[in-house]
Design brief:
single chain; alpha/beta; TIM Barrel; seven-stranded parallel beta sheet; 14 helices; about 35% helix; globular; NADP_OxRdtase_dom
């Protein structure tokens, strides 16, 4: 498929992309005490990118979410721009890249495959299965479909193995043991190297892990969305030696400080238009969080994004956030997290302030919230 055709497909499938971007992702970077290994690389800015382990999978301490390049938070980016952004991330030490069958659908995997082909053996690629791709948020994790998706994803990604294969959302019609068993078969065949779950409950994680070791769990987590701390998911990952990959580590862009109550989102191209937390009223009510991040970042000489990423990485040594961007300038801002060293006093100050602020609005629309697996 030529480049022009991919661009046309990316734009032509926008309606589905908006409904499909359910998981989040987000793009790169950070360094911090608690990294699970001592391996490092020096970025173009002179900062140090260390590595961490998700289970037994070693990756850069911050990864790159590619989802937004193909749309979701606005129209799709130019293909060449997306490729340049991902390759620049790699040039700056990022070795962990996140995509999914549903992004586009399909076009994001194609973009990631093209962008990373020259350095395939130096990076780890995560992708996802589990949506029916019928224009709704319906799930389909039947074992036969999982195996078919794997074959198709391998072709789009231009690779012979998927480093990390997530179930994108739990399918209530398919026992998780059957899902884990299907991925186990793929691992035995060498087509998949590691198994992951996205937005799964602690109970589901345990059931899956008993059949096939779960390497990573992906769930939204940030200074504005801290549910993994209280719903048992983060604790379960720590107990079982499972890595944790936060999507939306910058609050879907809100924590960057570039969004306020006057910001308008196009419901045809931007998923956030229908999310409660992004109503004008709730964005105004949540502004104390951004104001504090700005003030704290100014003391550190970095951006609010850098502080938000540094805080997240400081929570556990097995956490690897995947902020996502299509913009090189924003990528550079995120790289500022590599220069942030949060002391115990800093963390105490941040947590003390956050504990006094009430977060307003649900993190997703009711339709998307329904697809999140929760304890009965």
């Amino acid at each position: 498929m030529n480049k022009q055709r991919r661009i046309e497909l990316s734009i032509g499938r926008r309606d589905f992309v908006v409904g499909a971007a359910l998981t989040g992702a987000t793009l790169p970077l950070g360094s911090m005490a608690g990294a699970a290994t001592s391996d490092t690389s020096t970025t173009q800015t002179g900062s140090i990118m260390e590595t961490r382990r998700l289970g037994t999978l070693e990756v850069s301490e911050i990864g790159a979410g590619a989802m937004s390049i193909s749309g979701t938070y606005g129209p799709p980016a130019d293909i060449a721009q997306g490729i340049q952004t991902l390759r620049t991330a790699h040039d700056n030490g990022v070795t962990f890249f996140d995509t999914a069958e549903v992004y586009g659908p399909h076009t994001n995997e194609e973009l990631v495959g093209e962008a990373l082909a020259p350095m395939r053996d130096k990076v780890k690629i995560a992708t996802k299965f589990g949506f029916a791709l019928d224009g709704t948020t319906a799930r389909d994790s039947r074992p036969e479909r999982i195996k078919r998706v794997a074959e198709e994803s391998l072709k789009r990604l231009r690779t012979d193995r998927i480093d990390l294969f997530y179930q994108h959302r739990v399918d209530r019609n398919v026992p998780i043991e059957d899902v884990a068993g299907a991925v186990k078969d793929l691992i035995q065949e060498g087509k998949v190297l590691h198994f992951g779950l996205s937005e799964a409950s602690a109970k589901t994680i345990r059931r899956a892990h008993a059949v096939q070791a779960v390497t990573a769990v992906q769930t939204e987590y940030s200074v504005i969305e801290r549910s993994p701390e209280t719903n048992g998911v983060l604790a379960t990952c720590e107990e079982l030696g499972i890595g944790f990959v936060p999507w939306g580590p910058l609050g879907m862009g809100y924590l960057t400080g570039s969004i306020d109550s006057k910001t308008k989102f196009d419901p045809k191209t931007d998923l956030r238009a229908n999310f409660e937390r992004f109503s004008a009223e709730n964005m105004a009510a949540n502004m104390p969080i951004v104001t504090f991040l700005r003030q704290f970042a100014a003391k550190k000489g970095v951006t609010p994004s850098a502080v938000a990423l540094a805080w997240l990485r400081a929570q556990k040594p097995f956490i690897v956030p995947i902020p996502g961007t299509r913009n090189i300038d924003h990528l550079v801002e995120n790289l500022g997290a590599l220069r942030v060293e949060l002391t115990p006093e800093d963390l105490a100050e941040i947590n003390a302030v956050l504990s006094t602020i009430t977060v307003h609005g649900g993190r997703m629309s009711p339709m998307f919230t329904e697809s999140v697996d929760v304890e009965a």
